[in-house]
Each structure stands twice: as C-alpha cells, then as structure tokens.
Amino acid sequence: MIPQDTLVKIDGNRQRYVDELLGFLRIPSVSTYSRHTSDVRRAAEWVFSHLRRLDFQSKLYETARHPVVYGHRCPYPDRPTLLIYGHYDVQPPEPLEEWITAPFSPTIRDGYVYARGASDDKGQFFTYLKAIEAVLAVAGKLPINVKILVEGEEEIGSPNLAPFLKTHQKELKADAVAVSDGSQFTHGTPAITYGLRGLSYLQVDVQGPRFDLHSGSFGGVVANPAQVLADILARLKNPNGTIAIPGFYDDVAALEPWEREAMAALPFDDASLKAYLGVTELIGEADYSTMERKTARPTLDINGIWGGFSGEGAKTIIPAKAGAKVSMRLVPHQHPSAINQLFKDFVHSLTPDGVKVQITELHGADPVLVSRDQPSLQAAAKAIEIGFGKAPVFIREGGSIPIVNLFEEVLKLDSILMMGWGSPDDGAHSPNERFSLDDFHRGIRSAAALLYELAA
Ligand code: BES
Ligand code: MN
Ligand code: MN
Which residues line ligand 1 (CB under 6 A)? Predict the structure, then answer.
C-alpha cells in the first residue's frame, strides 16, 4: 500500500507538475513531418534528461528515424519488474484555424490544459515520471524494479520500435507493462482496457491520362480516375454497412455472450454520443450495439480523398489522377498482412481497363485482447481506486497501439496493464486537444500507487 506521505507529497506538488508538463507540451514533436525531426529529438532529450534526474540508468537510442528513450532502475533481483511504455511524439495539429489557442502554446482553461499531445500521450505518460519522483522523494527508493520505454514513432505506426524490442529483448524483460495511452470510460469513470483494435492502413492511387484533359473534348472516351476511384470505394461496403471485401470476416472472433452482457451493462447511451459528435444518427451493423461496433467489430473508413479540381468556381476537366487513404480497424484474429492482401486483390478485381491503380501499405497494427484474469490486474484496479477514488470498469478500446501486441509476442510479458487517464472527449488527434488537470493529478497518484500494489 502506498504510504500516505507520498500521496500528500503528490498533492502538494500539483502545480509544479503542471508547469513542467506545459514545458513538455511546448515541443512540437510531430513524428510524421520531416520538418519537425529536430523537435522530435528535443522531446526525446527532454524525456531523457528527466529520467537521468530520477537516477535511472538511461540511454537515447538512435533508430532509422526517431530516437527511443530507455531507462531502468532495477536494484532488486527478487522483486517484480514493471515496464512503463509511452510515446513522446504527437499527431499533426492541423487544421490550425480551428484551435482556440495555438497547439504548441499550452493554455489552461476551466481545469483543462489545451495543447496537441496533452492527452495523447505526453500528459498521460508523464504521470509515471512524477509518480516515481514523488516516491523517491519520500522513500528514497522504489518498491519494485522499474524500466521505462518511450518512443517517438507511435503516431506513425512504430516502424523502428518493433525491431528494437527484438534486439533488446533481454534488457526489456519484465513481469508487467503499464500503458497509459488511452482513456477512461468517461470523464470520472476510470477504466482498465483489455482490448485494442488493430489497423490496416493503405493508400489507393488511380492514374488515368497523362495530364488533366478538357472534359468537353475528351469526355466520353477516357476512363475518369476520380469516377473510377469513387466506384471502387463505393463497392468496398455493402448497403447494410458491412464490408464487402471477400474473406474480410473469415478470422473475426465472435463476441461471447458474457462479453456482450458486460458491454451492455456499461453506463452508456447513444443520445449523449450523438450530441457530443453533432450527428443525428449513428450508423453501422444492425446486429451490434454502439459499444460493440466502436470497440469490438472491424471497420473500414475513407480517411482522405482527393483528385481533380476543388478550387473556387468550376473547371471543366477530366483529372489525370485521383487517390484515397483507406483504413480498416481489425479485431481478433484478423492480421494486417492478410487483410492488406484481401484488400489489394479486391480493389484490383474492381479496376476497369484504361486506368492504373497502385496500392501502398502505410501502416499496420495487430489487435490486442488480454485476459481479464492476468496476475496484476487486481493491483492495477486497486491503484486506480486509490488515485481516482473509484473502481475501474473493464472496457475494450477502438483505437490501436501498434507495439502492444509485441509486448506479448516478443517480450512474453504476462501482464499488460492498459490504464488510460484521458477521456473520450479529450479530442485526441482533433483540434483543441485537452487533458483534465484533475485527471493528470489522479493519474500521478494512481501511477505511484501501482508501484506499491505490484510490490505486495
Ligand atoms: N493513443 C492512441 C490509441 C488509442 C486511441 C488507444 C483511443 C485507446 C483509445 C494512439 O496514439 C493512436 O492514435 N494510435 C493510432 C495508430 C497508429 C498506427 C497511427 C490509431 O489508433 O489511429
Ligand atoms: Mn497515443
Ligand atoms: Mn494517437
């Protein structure tokens, strides 16, 4: 059990923790933009120097792209080891004009800090560093062995972390991993996440004539790439909302009755979701509830689409090319490599003569489903209760974290503890991303309590 003094210490330092977080949030560590490469590095160095100050043996590992920060403080051969995972990179902030205050000028309004990365994932991951600092300040030592792994490529699919795990398998050995990169069930209802969806993300490029053509002079004789693309995309789904790719559902695990019951029992209603999203209807497979559709069923979405003229007024052309980004969320036991192949075969089968279609794989992630009887789950639940004053509910999340599956497969960790301190309405990836300062504080308390619960 965490000493009361440590919680008092955390409560007393609340403002300083926030001030430090603001400094972290000022670094525009957008991993996908090459023009931000040096900013991404600055964020890595910021984390690295923090770990150093906590007396962690730390290293900044170079990769083909963004650095991995790793540190450990493992003095006890006979006590458990916790691996803490987080990411210091963030999504692009655009559209900039929609931000009330600039994305990398963190601002506090009504108990929330607004900034890109506030919730995903800088604010969440930073709670562990402050928890460790408080425990060390009060006790002079940690109750268990701790390793910390922070990457700068999560938002681009963790391309270099997977090989890193393989080459550092021994160093990273642990009994459990803590991942705080998701959210509570709702603001004020903390959760333990036991499932994540996987991801297949592809780009489709359609090439027609050599250049844009006068649609009067040539319309009626050449295939129009924008039209071809629209036809192809339209045929990816059936009118009832299911995905039309042959074989797509073959490996989908059916939801078991106990799980459907548990999901139905979660405090959730469609009306408030509609109101939050500003839509009049929710759509999707008729036989599944909203909660099931958004976390435990696979999806296909067009993420972006382009081609031809979209400027002011009208321009009569047949565009030379058109394209789209398409992603599919996967569930157990689908795998991105097999789904990518099914997608490619189907799109090629739909492609008419007269255009060329090229398909590029962008990134992928395997789905994750961890057992609800993992050894450390009770410890995690107690820690959350101490931090949030409320027992967590168990949920599956619709988002993806590419590396989590490899914690199981490569590192063979027995326990994967996914505890998101954020909220579904934090606006991760959206304009005006925010993180509740109360949740930041509760997250620090929970993270500190977790170290003691795992020692018990
Ligand atoms: N933190 C999110 C994943 C997440 C979202 C977990 C919502 C739980 C609830 C993560 O940073 C993320 O955005 N992942 C990407 C995948 C990646 C390959 C770009 C995603 O889910 O789109
Ligand atoms: Mn994240
Ligand atoms: Mn993200």
Answer: 120-121, 154-155, 157, 181-183, 199, 363, 365, 397, 399-402
Place of tokens 């004789």: 221
Among 172, 182, 160, which Cα is nearest to 68's?
A: 160
CA–CA separation, 197 vs 353, rounded Å? 36
Q: DSSP letters of 300-366? A: EEEEEEEES--SSS---EE-SEEEEEEEEEE-TT--HHHHHHHHHHHHHHHPPTT-EEEEEEEEEE-
Look up tokens 């160095």; give the residue: 45
> What's the pTM?
0.95
Tell me the residues surrounding ligand 3 (ion) with CB < 5 Å.
Answer: 120
Residue in 133, 151, 154, 397 annotated catalytic: 154
Distance CA 237, CA 282 (A): 17
- At 70-96, the pLDDT tens digits run 999 999 999 999 999 999 999 999 999
Q: Measured between alpha carbons, how far is 429 from 30 in angstroms, rounded to an integer? A: 11
Assess whether 62 carries a catalytic annotation.
no
